[in-house]
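We close this part of the discussion by returning to an individual protein. The sequence in question and its structure tokens are set out directly beneath this paragraph:
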Amino acid sequence: MEKEKNNRSSFSGKIGFVLSAAGASVGLGNIWRFPYLAAKYGGGIFLLIYILLALTFGYTMIVAESALGRMTRKSPVGAFKAFGKKAGWLSFGGWINAVIPMLIVPYYSVIGGWVLKYLFEYLRGNSETLAKDGYFTEFITSSGKVELWFLVFAVLVFAVILAGVKNGVERVSRVMMPMMIVLAVVVAVYSVTRPGAVEGIKYFLIPNLEHFSIMTVVA
């Protein structure tokens, strides 16, 4: 057991861990869902509440989970079970941490397949075709194509996981996270040059209590 524990894969340093943790946190929710949710539920007031929740609940939870993992050196189920020996009900939290990713992965893999399909077609020089009305609907309603790209994405993810923490997750995160930041900056710069962008920026950055509702917090 001691030998197995010592040979367990781990991150090579702080940068690799931070990039990997950021990659796990900054996902589809931030890149894909955040813009339209912010627009729908109040703009600036939505952003303000989002930041407050990130700095309180979000920061507290990620520090607690990281500390618990480093202290016990176990999976979520084992970590919560070891931490909650005196209060057995705490072990239930480990199962929640284990089951939720299992529910999220299929959903993420479908969207990931869409992204790979668009990337593939873009690299083939079909950018004009991708921009046509109805292309996306036609693609996602074609079950065979969607399932094919779902499998491609799933295989790539499996290969990364199979490579381990250092040679898989960390190595990929060191490349893809900086790429994502660069792409985000490019998209942001492009967006602010569009007609009507100034009004959009004001709506997004200036909180207005009139736009607040309970759904602003829920979303």
Q: What stands out?
A: The chain is about 80% helix and 0% strand.
